[in-house]
Amino acid sequence: MRKLCDVILFSCFLLLLTFVDVEADCEGGLFAVNSTYSENLNSLFSSLASNVIANNGFYNTSTGEGSNKVYGLALCGRGYPKQACVNCVEQAIQESQQRCPNRMKSFRWTTRDSDNASCLIRYANHSVSAKLELFPPTLSDNPLIIEEPKSLKLFRREWEALTNLTMQSATSAPENSSVVLKFYSVVRAEFTEFANVYMMMQCTPDILSSECNKCLSQCVLNFQNNNWGSQGGAGRLPSCYFRWDLYPICGSSENMTRVSMISRAITLPQGDTVSQPENDNKGKRIRNGTIAIIVVPTVINLFVFVGLFIIFDQRRKAYNKNINECFDSDGQSMLRFSIGMILSATDDFSPENKLGQGGFGTVYKGILPNGQEIAVKRLASGSGQGDTEFKNEVSLLTRLQHKNLVKLLGFCHEGEEEILVYELVPNSSLDHFIFGESL
Ligand SMILES: *[C@@H]1O[C@H](CO)[C@@H](O)[C@H](O)[C@H]1NC(C)=O
Ligand SMILES: *[C@@H]1O[C@H](CO)[C@@H](O)[C@H](O)[C@H]1NC(C)=O
Ligand SMILES: *[C@@H]1O[C@H](CO)[C@@H](O)[C@H](O)[C@H]1NC(C)=O
Ligand SMILES: *[C@@H]1O[C@H](CO)[C@@H](O)[C@H](O)[C@H]1NC(C)=O
Ligand SMILES: *[C@@H]1O[C@H](CO)[C@@H](O)[C@H](O)[C@H]1NC(C)=O
Ligand SMILES: *[C@@H]1O[C@H](CO)[C@@H](O)[C@H](O)[C@H]1NC(C)=O
Ligand SMILES: *[C@@H]1O[C@H](CO)[C@@H](O)[C@H](O)[C@H]1NC(C)=O
User: Fold this and answer.
1) What are the tens digits of pLDDT across the range 136-165?
2) Of 30, 94, 172, 208, which has the highest C-beta tally within 10 A?
């Protein structure tokens, strides 16, 4: 028994060691302070920054001979002044020397938010160029976490979709592309609960696009396994860099792909009801500067049945008697209103109560018996949807609602009538009600 405990303790210790080791970006043996290797490395360092900018952002080199030969490479991100690149590379060298003194091998991705710059330096006693390296990983995260009432589950769906999109964009350069910084992508996305999510991915250009993909996937996975729940973070490997945040990264607002993840993530669990060009067409390149606003709200489905207005008929008068019928549907906090209640609230859809009219129907102002003011959207009918389908759509709408937008109180579905009932917000744009943009 005692032995078993010792074994378990020892294993934990080993695990801890592994974890600590994984956090470090220093590797290889130690070299002596005034050794030839040390001189070669210093000489490599001294020329790195100027050579990177002279070579459009990526440079690989080697100095020395035999076992003292030092191989190195450096890379600068895209889209900022040369001096920022020089500053960044010099800072990375300095950090490397402080963190990994006298180590033969190291890599360091550095970001300088003050210059909007990011860069990589890497060196070893073996060739580092054209070689995918997936070890050691390093990670960092924002100490703030995503808290309730934000849904981490919804966030994960949108976040994963965004990583796929960014990765696809970062690795879409053709194999023979001569662009120096070809494996690079920055995307700004709109999530359901976060207006701006920024993601950046970059690989060194000396590897294959499939290797870049592998490297970035590993970075993303490392982040998910270790820092999931943080409001931002980064994952690094010798061959690639991944970062995401809720604020702009490296000032890369220029040439940034802008996408909306909202519809994408919401349609995911229900299968493809909406065409998603980016997902369907794997090879499609999202070009720099493309504004890819993908506005395909599922809820449009709800309004697809735009048809002719039905003509008032006498039948409705009869419902007038059921004025106070109103009950909870499906145990949700949403109400099902009787047509009588709606007619009473809107004074039989009187023209005086009409707030506006749009393609999807007409909106009326109304007052419930309890005094609450409502906006009633009377959908243009003709869909012939079953009660269950309409209820499902409405329940989907309720889940889609954003807290800053107009609140959906309930619905009414009787005969041909399909009606949505909203809270009436004074001074709120009528368009919310009329055109369904709030959905
Ligand atoms: C690099 O250094 C390590 C010791 O840190 C040594 O085992 C290895 O053989 C060296 N590689 C080359 C190519 O010299
Ligand atoms: C390394 O060389 C410098 C001068 O070249 C000397 O001052 C220093 O003492 C040396 N360090 C060691 C550890 O030999
Ligand atoms: C840089 O890498 C390429 C491809 O691996 C190699 O052919 C070239 O010699 C390297 N350049 C230097 C200066 O080492
Ligand atoms: C943005 O795109 C334009 C043209 O596509 C290009 O000339 C410019 O260098 C790009 N800027 C960055 C920062 O990539
Ligand atoms: C992302 O891509 C992976 C592999 O290509 C796929 O399995 C996964 O479903 C995708 N996730 C999302 C959210 O699109
Ligand atoms: C890259 O390859 C494609 C065909 O595979 C060819 O059409 C294109 O001209 C090549 N580009 C360069 C820069 O060599
Ligand atoms: C960095 O980017 C931000 C936002 O794009 C910009 O306001 C700022 O001036 C940039 N800083 C530098 C030093 O270029």
Assistant:
1) 999 988 888 898 888 888 899 999 999 999
2) 172
